[in-house]
Amino acid sequence: MEQQRTDAAESRENKQGRDPFEKFVDVSTTLISRAPFFAVCVAVVVVWAVSYPLWSSVTKWELAIHTFGAVLSLLLLVLLENAGRRNQESMQEKLNVLAEALAALMESRAADDPDLAEAVDRLREAVGLEERH
After folding, report:
1. Residue 56: CB partners within 8 Å, gap ≥ 6?
2. How far is C-alpha 105 from the chain's CA centre?
């Protein structure tokens, strides 16, 4: 039974590498998940807080940090969602490959145990279930 393959699996099968955006996401998530990025964020907030006397109005001072925070949050959300999706596809593909290998092994032994044939069918039906729901 041939299962639909995810974009990640198709990319590996066609020997295509990651596109520039995926490479960027990998580098970004690696940097973002480290302590120095947190330190930079804290430093930006400290600089913003200390800069209060330099602003002509409190509203502009508050608007600056809110705008910066909103833009940064949106960009990080997009990056992290992309990384999470690719990670989930990768894990699912590994599980599908393991299930197919197990089904093939079980099928080779099904002649000795008729209950295995039914189990093989259920296992193969379950592979790719996430694509159908």
Report:
1. none
2. 31
- What is the separation, in whole angstroms, between the first and last Cα of the chain? 18
What are the Cα distances from residue 56, in Å, to 20, 51, 126? Answer: 42, 11, 63
Summarize pLDDT for 35-72 with one digit per residue, the tens: 999 999 999 999 999 999 999 999 999 999 999 999 99
pTM to 2 decimals? Answer: 0.64
Report whether 93 contacts 9 (CB < 8 A). yes
Dist CA 108 CA 116 (whole Å): 9
Scan for tokens 């002509």, then name that residue.
Answer: 56
Residues composing the chain: 133
Judge contact between 103 and 127, C-beta under 8 A: yes
Residues 86, 24 contacting (CB under 8 angstroms): no
Cα angle value 129/118/121 (rounded, 5°): 30
